[in-house]
């Protein structure tokens, strides 16, 4: 896009019938520095999509319509934001489930990621030859920065019919003006996380879930449950004999993820393994509480209290051992646990009904907590699309596989 020519752009209210007006933005008072809300959809690239269109104050507002030559994002927002590329648009289409939705009376399309988060694209229509908007409530086209052939340019097409060709392209200015949904690479880490200089870039929380200080034990949770209990028994475990998937990190079963509004999640076994391998571990005390210090390659440290656990026979090994859940599954009755004992540190297959503390992580780049199961399909009985329809073969995006033995799992097929 040529940013040297800021052209006349059109702003429309999302409520049909309100008068429209044309104006040129004054880039000296463009609202830079304002905190913009984004949504983490759990995409493999780690890209974050803006919650609203440029020029909108809520998800259902149409915002501002731009000619393709205008680069509205960096002119009007901060430098971390930009207009998405075709490849980033393709990732959104491939790794999210499409559905129709209505927000405050405004029709649109909702894209839901594997982590359950979603973004709403209102059917904003478009302007053509400086007239419009047209097709409001029927569909919406959103610019990318990627040119196509013959002076056309790729857009993200959100339509009533999800089977409409997603790979739409349109003539640039002066023929069409479309809204823009910005994207960024920024992943904010909540206050209280520690950068240990790990190779993956993973940031660890300084405290357990529900704790306010590193030496506090925090809450005790059965694996996959979101509330503490008076007793932790096999009979009152909510998910006995239920398969919650290979990893529950950053899902509806992850208490760290839910309580932090998606900013933290349970660590996977691999993340704990990295912490064990790349840090120096020493026994010590913090404010009189027994525990272990983990010192990273950059010299920063975490403290893990020996918080013990809660089970069928009440509290056990508090101040003596530390038991920490990972998000990684083993089978219907056990999940991977990270154990800190007086003489050694190791992994253990712990009973899911036991109450254990959780030390969450915040991933700087791609959320490692979003586990994509990629494997060869064997003994397949049926392949389903996310909408429940059957498919004869794997298609781009999410596929639900039901094997002949009755077990089910997910496969993400690349879009290319």
Description:
The protein is mainly β and 416 residues long. Helices cover 7% and strands 34% of the residues. The chain contains four helices and 31 strands. A four-stranded antiparallel beta sheet has the order 3-4-16-6. Strand 1 (9-12) and strand 2 (21-23) form a beta hairpin. The model is unreliable at 1-33 and 364-380 (pLDDT under 50).
Secondary-structure map:
Layout: E1 9-12, E2 21-23, E3 38-40, E4 48-50, E5 63-65, H1 72-76, E6 81-82, H2 86-95, E7 97-103, E8 106-112, E9 118-122, E10 126-128, E11 131-134, E12 139-147, E13 153-159, E14 169-170, E15 176-177, E16 183-184, E17 193-195, E18 202-205, H3 255-259, H4 269-278, E19 280-286, E20 289-295, E21 301-305, E22 309-311, E23 314-316, E24 322-329, E25 334-340, E26 345-351, E27 361-363, E28 380-384, E29 390-391, E30 397-403, E31 408-413
Antiparallel strand pairs: 1-2, 1-5, 3-4, 4-16, 6-16, 7-8, 8-9, 10-11, 10-15, 12-13, 13-14, 17-18, 18-27, 19-20, 20-21, 22-23, 24-25, 25-26, 28-29, 28-30, 30-31
């Amino acid at each position: 896009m040529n940013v040297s020519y800021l052209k006349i752009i059109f702003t429309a209210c999302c409520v049909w019938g309100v008068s429209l007006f044309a104006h040129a933005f004054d880039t000296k008072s463009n609202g830079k520095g304002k905190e913009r809300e984004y949504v983490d959809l759990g995409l493999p690239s780690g890209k974050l999509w803006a919650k609203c269109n440029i020029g909108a104050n809520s998800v259902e507002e149409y915002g501002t319509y731009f000619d393709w030559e205008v680069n509205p994002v960096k002119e009007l927002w901060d430098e971390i934001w930009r207009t998405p590329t075709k490849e980033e648009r393709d990732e959104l289409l491939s790794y999210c489930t499409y559905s129709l939705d209505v927000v405050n009376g405004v029709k649109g399309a909702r894209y839901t990621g594997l982590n359950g988060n979603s973004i709403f694209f209102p059917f904003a229509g478009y302007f053509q030859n400086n007239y419009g908007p047209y097709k409001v409530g029927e569909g919406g086209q959103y610019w990318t920065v990627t040119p196509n052939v013959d002076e056309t340019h790729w857009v993200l097409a959100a339509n009533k019919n999800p089977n409409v060709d997603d790979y739409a392209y349109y003539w640039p200015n002066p023929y069409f003006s479309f809204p823009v949904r910005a994207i960024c690479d920024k992943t904010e880490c909540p206050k209280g996380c520690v950068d240990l200089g790990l190779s993956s870039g993973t940031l660890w929380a300084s405290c357990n879930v529900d704790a306010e200080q590193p030496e506090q034990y925090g809450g005790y949770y059965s694996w996959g449950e979101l509330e503490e209990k008076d007793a932790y028994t096999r009979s009152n475990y909510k998910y006995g004999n239920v398969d919650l998937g290979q990893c529950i990190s950053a899902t509806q079963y992850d208490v760290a993820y839910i309580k932090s509004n998606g900013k933290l999640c349970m660590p996977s076994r691999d993340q704990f393994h990295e912490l064990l391998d790349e840090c120096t571990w020493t026994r010590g005390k913090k404010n009189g509480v027994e525990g272990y210090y983990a010192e990273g390659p950059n010299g920063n440290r975490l403290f893990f209290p020996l918080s013990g656990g809660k089970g069928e026979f009440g509290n056990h090994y508090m101040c003596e051992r530390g038991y920490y859940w990972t998000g990684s599954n083993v089978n219907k009755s056990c999940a991977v646990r990270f154990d800190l004992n007086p003489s050694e540190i190791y992994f253990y297959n712990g009973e899911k009904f036991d109450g254990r503390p959780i030390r969450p992580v915040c991933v700087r780049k791609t959320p490692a907590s979003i586990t994509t199961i990629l494997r060869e399909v064997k003994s397949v009985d049926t392949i389903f699309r996310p909408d429940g329809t059957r498919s004869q073969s794997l298609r781009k995006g999410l596929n639900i596989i039901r094997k002949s033995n009755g077990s089910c799992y997910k496969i993400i097929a690349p879009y290319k």
